[in-house]
UniProtKB/TrEMBL annotation, chains A, B, C, D:
This is N-acetyl-gamma-glutamyl-phosphate reductase. Belongs to the NAGSA dehydrogenase family. Type 1 subfamily. Keywords: Amino-acid biosynthesis, Arginine biosynthesis, Cytoplasm, NADP, Oxidoreductase. It comes from Streptomyces prasinus. Signal peptide: none annotated. It is found in: Cytoplasm. GO terms for molecular function: N-acetyl-gamma-glutamyl-phosphate reductase activity. It catalyses: N-acetyl-L-glutamate 5-semialdehyde + phosphate + NADP(+) = N-acetyl-L-glutamyl 5-phosphate + NADPH + H(+). Pfam families: Semialdhyde_dh, Semialdhyde_dhC_1.
Length: 346, 346, 346, 346
């Protein structure tokens, strides 16, 4: 018995990645696919890698189409620009599972939302990062899911064990490199191949990136106190992947062994997160196209800091894979259905 | 009921790709994994993307290990350097399906083998390119399979329909670009990232590439006469993918419509080859990590030539995927089991 | 004593590369810089690599600005979209050297222009490829120069010696790979870094590329008869560089030695073209950022074809460097002034 | 009047870049070029981008060759593996300017050297980073120069103004991304193009990187107290460039205006360092192939940290350009001779 799924925003990178994963999910039937400016076009011309869906035609993103007209959808994924999910979601019934891959329902603090997104806060939904403490319980049976941002996924998973174990001071310093697909498919000059190949560059420096309050929210919850975050994202010359280098001052008395133990404990039973053997470090190539998270941690005694590094695929675990994993939990399916820990490398 | 599979050469790119695919194949149990210089090492340190096999330890490549000692293997894949398969294969029993991913058993002409590989010809096995005329029949029930080279796969699929339909003169001119994984994992200075990023360069120009006689063999079989091949391979700054631009002078009276019809007919029932809609051209990104082949063809009236272009993933359809597809046929399984036409993009 | 130079289209890739070279030219003073949609902006925000010009502000592209108002310009470079140069050039006086980096004045055949560009032919100017037979003489003292297209530069230099020496049949088959800067700086979805990294793809297949008639023109002039050209351009995942693989059937009696001799003779005194030692092949990385052309040629006896391969930097020798080289000749300066044969590698 | 220059290690990336720059230096004559395993080979086969030196043959790296036999060298550059410079340098006379591009003479603290390099300390030479306080004076007239490491160059320039102005706490947290040429030309599997393209990965995490004590040395000198450094280097999929993201907790009372003023003052008269206009951030592409340093700084009030980011070309300003700039100063030449601030972009 399949669940019937609609995808809003099927022409973008997040929507395309979700469709790639849904095609491999044995319990899913793909229903309506919608786009805005691309409505009426064949998917084959927009997402030529999705061969089985090449003849599908995009419909307009309306509540009627997403509800499913003749045959209702059980699940609706919203891969829409930030600020557009809430209006659509409000028109969908309470029995439909709505998975918002945008930012609209991630933040608990309305003031944070307004400061970083400049519009009215739409409310807070259960947060789709099951690996966080209490994360799975919040999703089971839920009809609304807010999928985390890609950077907060990588950063929160790298650093929460240090905070839940009380090993780190509440001041995190994070530098992350992302592949260009994280910036989306809208054609902008600074995202041209000619500009990004051979170049590393930062953006949103100094606290301006919209994912900062989401990291603060997650790490503060783990720490049980307000954690400040210095976050610098950089654009790397690769299509996919996030490498997040996350550091925090170690609390007095911390040892390398204590750090290792905390991380081993945090990820012991996680199907997608792998704490690498000591001495091996994450690489984004190893998780390319997969839902896997590679984590490694070190304690730098001379500098007095814990350094935790994670690698994810920003489109998979960072967006569409995380969304599907959360859907599985919400629907009571095996959490790993349709997802893999095996990267496409080299 | 699973078939039990061994992989010789599990630490290389071809072996790693095969394992990636085997892990997703529902009818396979992965048995012994062997390496030469890497015997005794954990696979997790050599192929960090293959998370489920991280704790596996490589065994030495011997006939005993590959036969399977306590529990015999049903299938043995040989991902060994050219010239090393034959000696191993001879020691494996006639009931084991041996799939040679090296070159040793591809060529029918012993003189060609000796001219291009410089050693004694080991014999000719059924050829693992089911899409060629008569290709599937040759593989059904076979216990020995010679997996085609990556370039011959891309080139033969792009051009054989023009020859079987009698549309092209027997002189093909081919220029192909390959990702660097086609050159293998052995560390050589010219394959360093610093050298290949930002650079295109040819190699084996003027007929010297070892895949040339294999192309001639396939195209001549399709044409029913000797086809000469001018083949220029180039190294492209990407890890995976082959884009093969294949041209041949059109026979008198050829029309664009006749060309289109020949290609539509050749690929109408193929599960992995897709003739793109007119006006859309192949891109290696669209088939990344998949067993799909994208093909497009044009008739350039002014130049009097047919131009057929194909895109494949050199490690998947070009090597390990083609090997698995052929194994499926030989064993009587559904040809597509464990394989996908969906690329990982962007 | 400096010549005073204006650049129309200073915000694009061709204009930026020209400015990079002009800054290193000892006999040039940089006058007005113009743009269209970018007029009024600081160059530092548009071309951040041109540090010495960071505070310059773009002016609108008008005949008055380009003429030079208070202080007349001696040279005006037009780096404008195809079809826009002619109207501007007509308003500039006969004593100003006008160097058109667009296509408007390249083709001798008005019918070709109209077929490929769809507008009225603006006339034919001396052609800025001094290495062609008679090329320098045509430029000396000229007040109008048509800079060749990037592909025709690479292809004509690779193949003309075979034709001038009577070694090749008049049917050329050419496949070239270009870096993405050849497609310009206008933001289009298929040129996004996410799309091009990791991908090779063809375009303009089957004779449709606008550079085809220009190649035919050059090769036919060298051959003394009409040469047909099958030209397939491909987009490669690198910012700069063209690798052109050019083949033609050898005339009866041709030998490898005769081919080598013809090429040695053609390039013996050329400051920018280097016929590599036998066995060494061109690589675009070796000419990155330079005006150098690397050429190698082979005779494939089995296929009966001559294969000539060239590597250039599409923005330097392929556009701005070629323009500057031609300007030097037209003004009677040393041809190499401000230009280098040294690439930036790795 | 030219200075006669020898280069030891001419076949590597540092040596090759130095030769590229020396060829453009008007006051230099290139003398002996040496290599170890490559002695006897043509430079054209090892460094094909250095066209004017293609026919030069590498000599063995001996004191006699470097001294200059018949015609003495005025300057000897040592681009040798770490730990090999000292033995060679000892044999060169006191009147020869010896510029060590390796690490041997950078560190003032012998214990640091022994801890990080595992051999005996060879002594400390004047440090080739003229932009540091007192940097130029130390180099003027010197006959020995220790060229800084590439990471310390990027990091020290980004962060010293915050310390000299007393704005930052003595605990720096640094994450830097480097192009692969920083890892040298020796063929190692993890540096293959297949491995690095599409991947970001860290190395030397937790204080283990040999450049850490050099950063501590420079920043402590600027601060007037011991500065701890948490340094995480990452390998980025590009041939060249370093982007260094450097943060430190702001001292109480610091304001954004004070930070800006300190940086403006520090770089006001520097020919190669450019503090970008507010809102514009460094990109490695902008300094590709140049000796320029782009710097930008922000004060993140919410996190209480100063974030200073620099971009350099690791081979130019980070190695060979820095070496040449220091040579110019030592010899009393104009500091910028043979060097440019103009990057090769896109």
């Amino acid at each position: 018995m399949s669940v019937r799924v609609a995808v809003a925003g099927a022409s973008g990178y997040a929507g395309g990645e979700l469709l790639r994963l849904l095609l491999a999910h044995p319990g899913v039937e793909i229903g309506a696919l919608t786009g805005n400016s691309n409505a009426g076009q064949r998917l084959g011309s927009l997402q030529p890698h999705l061969a089985p869906l090449a003849e599908r035609v995009l419909e307009p993103t309306t509540a009627e189409v997403l509800a499913g007209q003749d045959r209702p959808h059980d699940v609706v994924f919203l891969a829409l620009p930030h600020g557009q999910s809430a209006a659509v979601a409000e028109q969908l019934g309470p029995d439909v599972l709505v998975v918002d891959m945008g930012a609209d329902h991630r933040l608990a603090d309305a003031a944070d939302w307004e400061a970083f997104y400049g519009s009215q806060h739409a409310g807070t939904w259960p947060y789709g990062l099951p690996e966080l403490p209490g994360g799975r319980a919040a999703l089971e049976g839920s009809k609304r899911i807010a999928v985390p941002g890609c950077y907060p996924t990588a950063v929160s998973l790298a650093l929460f064990p240090a905070y839940t174990a009380g090993l780190a001071e509440p001041e995190a310093v994070i530098v992350a490199a992302s592949g260009t697909s994280g910036a989306g498919k809208a054609a902008k000059p600074h995202l041209l191949g000619s500009e990004v190949m051979g170049s590393m560059s930062p953006y949103g420096v100094g606290g301006g990136h919209r994912h900062t309050p989401e990291m603060i929210q997650n790490l503060s919850a783990a720490a049980g106190e307000r954690v400040t975050v210095s976050f610098t994202p950089t654009l790397a010359p690769m299509p996919r992947g996030i490498l997040a280098t996350c550091t925090a001052k170690a609390r007095p008395g911390v040892t390398a062994a204590a750090v290792r133990t905390a991380y081993e404990k945090a990820f012991a039973d996680e199907p997608f997160v792998r704490l690498l053997p000591e001495g091996q470090w994450p690489a984004t190539a190893s998780v390319y196209g997969s839902n896997a998270v590679q984590v490694q941690v070190a304690y730098d005694q001379a500098a007095g800091r814990i350094i935790a590094i994670s690698a994810i695929d920003n489109l998979t675990k960072g967006t569409a894979g995380g969304a599907l994993q959360s859907m599985n939990i919400a629907l009571g399916l095996d959490e790993s259905t349709g997802l893999t820990t095996i990267g496409v490398a080299p």
